[in-house]
Amino acid sequence: MSFRGQVAVITGGGSGMGQAWARRLAEDGATVAILDVNEAGMAETAASASNIKPYVLDITDADAVASVFADIEASLGPVDRVANAAAIMPFGRLLEEDPKLTTRVMTINYGGLVNVATAALPRMIERGSGDFVSFSSMTGIVPGLLMGAYASSKAAVQFYTEILYHENRNSGLRFCCVCPPAVKTALWQQAEATVVPKLPSKGETLMPDVVIDEIERCLDKGKLFSYPGKQTQLGVVMRRLFPQLIWRVSHDAEGF
Q: Is 150 among the catalytic positions?
């Protein structure tokens, strides 16, 4: 699919999924605005294509987010696609984790999404077209030990996106909430710097392009949720039918 002439906005464009998708959309001809606090990472992303435009932004600042989206629309044109890839992923036992970190995970992973949606979607809905992509996680469906803060934030992302879709299902926009397993990016390396739960570390790890392909299929087919990878699809079924079995396996894997 060609995105030539379109404008895309990607949060977390300084690394990982955001960086990979920004480069791919730019190769397909889109003008891509990337938003991140990681200036060095964004410079690296933008160095690969002249049609990638970096914007230094803390997505937890709602006023700043609204201002940047107004600037993007004024300077680059109407936004056709928004992808919310910004996230942090520290792991650990909830009661051993600094509560400031626990709430910061929710503020960035979920609160940032809320700020972006509020800033971007009214204009897109008024035009009656566009794509809105939320990055959740398999852990938002299948929670596990040592993943409490991250899993909670990604579950919130799922519910928010689902309700957002149903409140705007006749708007002409396409919505997709992607729920991948571990992806080979800097975000997973961030988790490894804290503690890696044994269960997800034994599961499949996808490459970013695989996840992007699944998102594109999700949008083209008009599906709200995308579940990249065979283990993710199995996890959805297991969570629905055998929730206690999932917890038993998690306890056995972690040893407590």
A: yes
The token duo for 36 is 């991140």
Q: Where are the beta strands (DSSP E) in the chain?
A: 7-11, 31-36, 52-56, 81-84, 131-135, 174-178, 182-183, 205-206, 225-226
Task: State the catalytic residue, choosing from 110, 150, 165, 227.
Answer: 150
List, for residues 21-65, the tens digit of each pLDDT value: 999 999 999 999 999 999 999 999 999 999 999 999 999 999 999
pTM above 0.90, yes or no: yes
Q: Where are the alpha helices (DSSP H) in 168-242?
A: 186-192, 198-201, 208-221, 230-241
72, 157, 161, 63: which is closest to 115 by C-alpha?
A: 63
Q: Say how many domains are in the chain.
A: 1
Instruction: Let me know if residue 225 belongs to a domain.
Output: yes
Say whether 235 sits in a helix, a strand or coil: helix
Domain housing 200: 7-254
In a domain, 1, yes or no: no
The label of the residue with tokens 């960086």 reads 19
The CATH number given to whatever domain includes residue 206 is 3.40.50.720
Task: State the Cα–Cα distance between residues 213 and 201, nearest whole angstrom.
Answer: 23
206: phi then psi, degrees, rounded to nearest 5: -95, 155
**133: phi then psi, degrees, rounded to nearest 5:** -115, 130
